[in-house]
Amino acid sequence: MSYGDRMSSTRTARSEERRAEILRAALEVIAERGYRGASLAAVAERVGLTQQGLLHHFPTKEALLVAVLEERDQWDAVPSSRWRLDLLGSLVEYNAMRPGIVQTFSALLGESVTEGHPARAFFTRRYDGVRGSMAEVLRTEYGDRLPGGLTPERAAPLLVAVMDGLQYQWLLDPEGVDMPQAFRDFLGLLAGGGAGPSAPEGDGA
Fold first, then answer.
1. DSSP state of 149
2. Looking at 62-66, 91-95, 129-133, 183-187, which range is the least confident one?
3. d(CA 20, CA 47)
4. Which residues are CB-neighbours of 47 under 8 A, at least 6 positions away?
5. When comparing pLDDT for 27 and 130, which is higher?
6. 179: part of which helix (H) or strand (E)?
7. Residue 172 has pLDDT above 60, yes or no
8. Measured between alpha carbons, how far is 170 from 44 in angstroms, rounded to an integer?
9. In 58-178, alpha helices (H)
């Protein structure tokens, strides 16, 4: 490897390290201040950069937030062969402990339906993959037909919609919506039963 190649490789490694540092800082700021309070200036200050220096790595706040979402998905990533319905319940419980990240995800998801939004492509790809993964989870659990008669492919969008829809309700009224319990109730319905275990009479959103 030539001297120039070594220098280029070193610069690339440093740039990747700096990007990772910025993403960690962004996650911290979002967790502390929420989506709207997570300004580029606040993240830049956390990593000892000027805002202009931060823009070298992430040209817009939206680009930074999409990168945070991609990083979040890496944290949550489990090989499709290992996903189970009970693990989904654990994921919902985990999300209930990190409202800042959930708020960022939900806010960008709502905005991404508009044409030209920088997060639109991310969410389109994400949902295509998630629906496929959820169909496999349901097929592993129930075979080719759920107790209610739906195929895994038809039930998968409903499962995803409940997970993300519950997040919106919980963010708006965290005291009134027990997100993990409501999701367990839905899993009970998928299984052809009633409410999930330990749900008090009249409890829920």
1. S
2. 62-66
3. 11
4. 18, 21, 22, 25, 54
5. 130
6. helix 179-190
7. yes
8. 30
9. 61-76, 85-95, 99-111, 120-142, 152-172
